Amino acid sequence: MKKIKSVCVYCASSSKINPDYFEAAREIGQLLAQKGLRCVCGAGNQGLMGTLADSVLAHGGEVLGVIPRFMIDEGWCHPGLTQTIVTADMHERKERMAQEADAVIALPGGCGTFEELFEIITWKQLGLFLNPIVILNTDGYYDPLIEMLHKAIDENFMRREHERMWLIAQTPQEAIDAIEQAPAWDPSIRKIAAI
Questions:
Q1: pLDDT tens across 82-137, in order?
Q2: Are the C-beta atoms of 183 and 115 separated by less than 8 Å?
Q3: In the chain, what are the helix, strand and coil shares in percent, each to the nearest 5?
Q4: How much is the pLDDT for 192?
Q5: Residue of 49, 69, 94, 133 with fewest CB within 10 Å of its CB?
Q6: 28, 61 contact by CB (below 8 A)
Q7: Rounded to the nearest 5°, which phi and psi values hold at 90?
């Protein structure tokens, strides 16, 4: 398994959410900085995205933000990141975030976070992204989604082997441990992507 240097974190921009989610974002940021892991994120200045970036930076870490031009025009870009990459659109943003990542952690979020998480899982299923994917299930937020993934496997929309594409963590420390201990993913598994 290759050494983890950069971790992409998917998370929400909403600010009207459970304070536990903000605490998890702060802790993830602190842990990434303390371990010398660069944080790759969506460059937002609000919600969990802003909290995550602020925490990484406050603890001496680096944050690479990737954001489409229209979001900058809306004033949504965090002004203090280590590096900001501006993309033409959302598709280019997601692709670049994945290219920069040696691992992915999904914090609680809404449709944007779900979409990012499902896309990176799909890429792993197809052998296009081989790195660890961790779902941080703070306060059981992702229980219904995890149940749905298991249902997809139980009903043969995915193979049982695909369940190993992601790991579930209950705490930020477990999430960091999981990306460091995840087994390597074999790209030949794509042969069973179509079942």
A1: 999 999 999 999 999 999 999 999 999 999 999 999 999 999 999 999 999 999 99
A2: no
A3: 50, 15, 35
A4: 62
A5: 69
A6: no
A7: -65, -35
CB burial class (10 A; 0-12, 13-18, 19+) of residue 145? middle
Instruction: Output DSSP code: residue 185.
Output: P
* pTM tops 0.85, yes or no: yes
User: Which backbone phi and psi does 67 adopt, to 5 degrees?
Assistant: -145, 140
Look at the alpha carbons of 96, 99, 101, 104 in this order and tell me if their dihedral is positive or negative: positive
Please determine, for residue 80, whether its predicted confidence score (pLDDT) is greater than 60: yes
Beta-carbon contacts of residue 137 (< 8 Å; ≥ 6 apart)? 143, 146, 168, 169, 170
Amino acid identity of 141?
A: Y
